[in-house]
Specification:
By secondary structure, the chain is an alpha/beta fold. It is built from 7 helices and 12 strands. α1 packs parallel to α6.
Length: 241
């Protein structure tokens, strides 16, 4: 069981989940209110995390995030509010289960898991850029010269960019893997709906990988680990559909 600040909890959990090979769960938790504030949630979250970690039903589920009496999958949990007590959700699927009267209760049986080897490289870098209205391509053009070996785009809607970005990304893909995710915070990228120049149909033809339901921040974690273990060619097999 691990405790940490909540700002990067979703990324840390996914990082460990991709590497955690054991049947015993690794449970992460944190607190939205400090011990000096009224109604501090730290002790309750710590107790719930311990109860989940010790539960037989938690076996085979990899890395879990337990907070606010909810049990979340490391791959799906996101921090969706800056200060609210109920700051963590799993958009689109909901939590895996809840802690009720000290008992971990799950909605479904555990799913099969796959893990990556410990990376043999640690010095590589993966960029994360967000598409926005009227953004230029200067940062995209600079990436290869700056030494980046991978790129994640938080795109518009179901995984879209402007025409200028589409053209530039097509020039980058022969040299580095590029993942197209959605910046919306909920839902998956499309595969075969939009055929305009910055739509997913054209982007896939240019060699981009669609992220599915994996959020941009976790796409960056995944790509960093794949490059570090020399498995970037298998990227498409690790992205959810």
């Amino acid at each position: 069981m691990l405790t940490q600040g909540t700002d990067t909890l979703e990324e840390t959990a996914y990082f460990f989940d991709l590497l955690w090979p054991y049947d015993a769960p690794l449970v992460l938790t944190g607190a939205m209110r400090s011990a000096s504030q009224p109604g501090s949630d730290g002790p309750a979250n710590l107790l719930a995390a311990a109860q989940v970690a010790l539960a037989q039903a938690s076996q085979g589920r990899g890395v879990l995030v337990v907070i606010n009496d909810q049990i979340h999958s490391a791959a799906k949990v996101r921090k969706v509010a800056s200060l609210a007590m109920a700051a963590f959700e799993s958009p689109g699927s909901g939590p895996l289960g809840e802690v009720v009267e000290g008992v971990a209760r799950y909605h479904h049986q555990p799913s099969p898991r796959a893990v990556l080897p410990i990376p043999h490289r640690l010095d590589h870098r993966v960029a994360l850029l967000e598409a926005c209205l009227d953004a230029d391509t200067a940062l995209l053009q600079a990436l290869p010269a700056l030494g980046y070996e991978g790129l994640v785009i938080a795109g518009f809607g179901a995984g879209h960019v402007s025409g200028a970005w589409s053209e530039m990304l097509g020039q980058l893909t022969p040299g580095l893997p590029v993942i197209m995710a959605t910046r919306t915070g909920r839902g998956a990228t499309a595969l075969a709906t939009y055929g305009f120049v910055g739509g997913e149909i054209v982007l896939q033809k240019k060699g981009l990988h669609m992220a599915g339901q994996l959020c941009p921040r976790k796409c960056r974690v995944l790509l960093w680990l794949l490059i570090g273990s020399g498995r970037q060619a298998l990227l498409h097999t690790w992205l959810p559909r």
